[in-house]
């Protein structure tokens, strides 16, 4: 049952068509927020928004495009009247060692996983700051990094690099907001293996159950995470309960970073 932890809040969630974005959008709406789901998968985002109901809307959004970011932020203001929360969730996770990864692939991963976060922070922050100042309310930016941004793997060179950069960018944004006296926090979350479509892409044509079991053996608690494990963490960090938490990183990794 909803406790209204985000009552009155307006959120923009990128990569909202599936996985962590869809789970986060559903959780936010259930807790009283109005949510704009954005994605290059317009049909998927529209389906999730329709399932949520009147509290949600969707739009096409390539996070590497400055024009698309400007349009998405404008849509949030036009549709809902402002913006309090940005969740930079959209991303890709291709494998590749430093020798295997082409310069083109390196740039593609960083464009989506890092440049997209930069553009979101840069272009959404003015509206979040203006909305919260007008209302005397609080806002938040949440950047979805990865445990791979903390602990590297030999076969994830570009992904490790981009997600580690998201972690540090988050801290810079948090300090900027504090210096400017914006009522806006900025934090990052760092999930490990979560059962989402990104996992399916990693599995490919291999046996799903066997590969999930292999992933689970790498996690101290013995299982792969569920989308709601991340959505609950996002809910806390984007609520007023976390108003004194900024520049922080939350590991959602079943204990991997503790080893």
UniProtKB/TrEMBL annotation:
Coiled coil: none
Pfam families named among the record's database cross-references: adh_short_C2
UniProt keyword rRNA-binding present: no
GO molecular function: glucose 1-dehydrogenase [NAD(P)+] activity
Domain of life, per lineage: Bacteria
Family classification: Belongs to the short-chain dehydrogenases/reductases (SDR) family.
PROSITE patterns named in the record: ADH_SHORT
Enzyme Commission no: 1.1.1.47
Cross-referenced PANTHER family: DEHYDROGENASES, SHORT CHAIN (PTHR24321), OXIDOREDUCTASE UCPA (PTHR24321:SF15)
UniProt xrefs under NCBIfam families: PRK07231.1 (NF005559)
Name of the molecule in the record: Glucose 1-dehydrogenase
């Amino acid at each position: 049952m909803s406790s209204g932890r985000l009552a009155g809040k307006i959120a923009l969630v990128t990569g909202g068509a599936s996985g962590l974005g869809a789970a986060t959008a559903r959780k936010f709406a259930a807790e009283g927020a109005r949510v704009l789901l954005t994605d290059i998968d317009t049909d998927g985002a529209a389906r999730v928004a329709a399932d949520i109901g009147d509290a949600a809307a969707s739009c096409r959004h390539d996070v590497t495009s400055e024009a698309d970011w400007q349009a998405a932020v404008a849509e949030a203001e036009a549709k809902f009247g402002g913006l309090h929360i940005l969740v930079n969730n959209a991303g890709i996770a291709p494998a590749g060692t430093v020798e295997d990864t082409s310069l083109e692939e390196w740039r593609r991963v960083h464009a989506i996983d890092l440049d997209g976060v930069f553009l979101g922070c840069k272009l959404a922050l003015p509206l979040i700051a203006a909305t919260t100042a007008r209302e005397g309310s609080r806002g938040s930016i949440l950047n979805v990094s990865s445990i791979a941004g903390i602990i590297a793997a030999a076969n994830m060179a570009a992904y490790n690099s981009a997600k580690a950069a998201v972690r540090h960018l988050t801290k810079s944004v948090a300090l900027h907001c504090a210096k400017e006296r914006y009522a806006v926090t900025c934090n990052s979350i760092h999930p490990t293996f979560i059962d989402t479509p990104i996992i399916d892409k990693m599995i490919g044509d291999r046996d799903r159950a066997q590969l999930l079991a292999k992933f689970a053996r790498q996690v101290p608690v013995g299982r792969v995470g569920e989308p709601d494990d991340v959505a609950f963490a996002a809910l806390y960090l984007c609520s007023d309960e976390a108003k004194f938490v900024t520049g922080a990183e939350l590991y959602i990794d079943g204990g991997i970073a503790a080893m």
